[in-house]
Amino acid sequence: MFIRNIFLIIIDISYHLLIKQILFIFNPESSHKFIGKFLKKSFLPWRYIGNVLNVEDGNLFTPYFGYYIANPIGLAAGFDKDCEYLKAISNFGFGYITIGTVTVQKQYGNQPPRLSRLRNDSALLNSLGFPSIGMHEFLKNVQQATEYSKTTFLTISITGKSIEQMVESYKFLYEHCDAIEINISSPNTEQLKIFHDDKNLLNLLKEINKYKNSPIIVKLPPYATSNINEKSELLETKDNVMRLIDASLKSEVDGFTISNSRPIITNKLASKKGGLSGKLLYESTAEMVEDIRPVIGNRTVINACGGISTGSQAWNLIKLGATTVQLYTSLIYSGITLPNKMNKFISKKLQSENQNNLIEFINHD
Ligand SMILES: Cc1cc2nc3c(=O)[nH]c(=O)nc-3n(C[C@H](O)[C@H](O)[C@H](O)COP(=O)(O)O)c2cc1C
Q1: pLDDT tens figures, 76-114
Q2: Which of 1, 185, 311, 356 could cross-link to 221 by cystine, CB 3.0-4.6 Å?
């Protein structure tokens, strides 16, 4: 235990004092590609790093679509869009990992600059617009990675500009993962808005249900919550998101990710608009989870997503009704020891609040 903690401190200090300092000199997209080169290297001792990062505590087991995952902290979509880093990131201590979003065909995405840091807010702006190697190459990466190590619950995030595209990628990929997340909420692809109409969403889910044999998660767009005072006309209304939830429940979806990055206007990106992610989203995420849990009842999974960066926030969201929490931006700002710290916090909270374990505490059945 002592040696493990020393390693954790060393990883933490190296990230904050060295790696992050170097990465943050460069533009965020170049930094991501650079770090990606290391994450792809199989000579690095990821398994040993995993032994240090994983929190082995049976009390953290979390009920998830009929399975028990090791803990409630997940990796959100977008970090590993092409499934290139799965061997490495499955050792970071996450209870589940979302890879993608993958598109049917290979595509470049939007013009740069399309990713920007707001350092003072620990936030990011992105207008990537789904750069993707396309689902055929993506599947090769999934197969190669899962052959080598398939230890963590794996969700694939898919998207498409039409029902046909969505169904095509669903049919192609669903057998190669544990769940499919349908991304209808990226702010950077205008055509996705067709699925913000509940009738279209209903039609989409009806088509997908013809092939369904594993859990389906719908990643919802954020709505204008009470704490948002910036340009909320870009955001969906709460009423409309509730209609999307209703359509999803009628179609028997198994879970919701609440929610995606928040649409904003900005001069920092070539497209002049994009998605905001990171700490600034936390309050909205909490409000949405609190609103939505009573509406959907206890049986449907909620993955809270947006601005989560501490164990205390994760704990609070679980109390508000989330089954799991997932993150992306805080991993960039806080480094790979973050899931470990969050899980340890939750473990301590269970004890201090006299709870036996998360299975009983979440109790969404
Ligand atoms: C650079 C970047 C790329 C992203 N790409 C995707 C994506 O491909 N699919 C998706 O569903 N969400 C994507 N997201 C959104 C995240 O999954 C997440 O919903 C959002 O960032 C809010 O969580 P966070 O505050 O923890 O980052 C992306 C976010 C960022 C910052």
Answers
A1: 999 999 999 999 999 999 999 999 999 999 999 999 999
A2: 185
Residue nearest to atom 19 of ligand 1 (CA): 260
Please list every protein residue whose CB sits less than 6 Å from any atom of ligand 1: 76-78, 81, 101, 115, 124, 126, 128, 157, 183, 186, 219, 260-261, 277-278, 281, 305-308, 327-330
The alpha carbon of 1 and the centre of ligand 1 are apart by a number of angstroms equal to: 34
Residue whose CA is at the smallest distance from ligand 1 atom 10: 77
Its sign, for the CA torsion 38, 39, 41, 47, is positive
Please give the residue range of the domain that contains residue 209.
Answer: 42-362
Q: What is the pLDDT of residues 178-205, one digit of tens each?
A: 999 999 999 999 899 999 999 999 999 9
Q: Classify residue 213: in a domain, yes or no.
A: yes
Find the CATH number of the domain harbouring 86: 3.20.20.70
Query: Using omega within 30 degrees of 0 as the cis cutoff, is the peptide bond preceding 300 cis?
Result: no
How far does the centroid of ligand 1 lie from the alpha carbon of residue 199, in Å? Answer: 26
How many domains does the structure of the chain reveal? Answer: 1
The H or E element spanning position 296 is helix 282-296
Query: Is residue 364 predicted with pLDDT exceeding 70?
Result: no
The length of the chain, given as a count of residues: 365
- Residue 21 covered by a domain: no
- Centroid of ligand 1 to alpha carbon of 267 (angstroms): 20
Contact predicate 292/245, CB 8 Å = yes
